[in-house]
Amino acid sequence: MAETTIDSTLSFEVFPPNSKVGVDKLTKTLDDLKELHPSFISVTCSNHNVDYEKNTIKLAKHVHNELNLPAMVHMPAAYVNKEQVSRILNELEELNINQVLALRGDIVDDHAPETDFKYASDLTRFIKSQKPNFEVSGACYPEVHPESTNRIDDIKHLKEKVDAGCDQLITQLFYDNEQFYRFQEECSIANINVPILAGIMPIINRKQALHVLENCAAHLPKKFLSILDKYKDNPIALRDAGLAYAIDQIVDLVTNDVSGIHIYTMNDSETAKHIYKNTSSFFKFED
Length: 287
Ligand code: FAD
What we know:
Blueprint: E1 9-14, H1 20-34, E2 41-43, H2 52-65, E3 71-76, H3 82-94, E4 99-103, H4 120-130, E5 135-140, H5 151-163, E6 168-171, H6 177-189, E7 196-200, H7 206-215, H8 222-230, H9 235-255, E8 260-264, H10 269-279
Parallel strand pairs: 1-2, 1-8, 2-3, 3-4, 4-5, 5-6, 6-7, 7-8
Helix pairs in contact: 1-10, 4-5, 8-9, 9-10
Protein name: Methylenetetrahydrofolate reductase
Pathway: One-carbon metabolism; tetrahydrofolate interconversion; Amino-acid biosynthesis; L-methionine biosynthesis via de novo pathway
Organism: Companilactobacillus keshanensis
């Protein structure tokens, strides 16, 4: 039988906590995630630029310095200016952190702040002009960005972002792999040839499912809706079914040669550990 080589990467997203309990939980989560050999840990930023440097940058430094893991810093174009970006990039370079996820950032109440960077591609171009050796990632949307008028324009703008210097893309969460495969094909037709990491957020309770439906513009396939319905009065069974669904999704993606899986951990290591235990043989881990 022909030997198959699978070299997908595994990475995780965490967010800066805003309470003492949250800090304690994240400390344990990061210790646990370290054991799962992530290719990097990405650190989100708030959509209001609340203490961006005190939260996101500080946590990324902790991941890099204390845990000795590659850190990726989320940077919101809508909430930073050129002077601040230059200063932060210099600081990151001194620390040997060279991965940035350049985002437009969520606009709150449809009110876009005055900014030096209108789109993520503007920030990407600026980062690359300042630090050509930095690895810049960008966000992408298998089910189309909610503000986009249509799929074609969304892909066209994504191509502009890649041409501006984006080295890698990370998807918005999705629950239907067919949507992802279609998107991959559209990227390939548009000559978008950078690695695309699949963003996966296991749904382990009803609250999370409602959040995804309301805020993430990701559709839940019939199969998933029937799981939600079947286990509406049984949270433990719902959690197990949600994890099994995510594992199934990941195994399918990895066996179809996805570049990487990026897990939205919600700062919870139990879910990540469970997924790792059931899928680790499918990943390539650096020594
Ligand atoms: P852009 O690439 O700038 O695109 C935004 C919209 O503008 C799209 O509809 C695009 O088609 C359109 N567009 C782009 N260029 C042009 C152009 N030249 N002319 C006209 N239209 C154009 N948000 C946070 O606040 N903090 C986070 O930490 C965070 N992390 C994220 C991580 C991932 C992996 C993903 C997928 C999203 C994340 N987000 C985060 C959400 C993100 O900020 C929002 O989805 C935001 O609305 C769009 O960001 P973007 O970088 O995709 O923007």
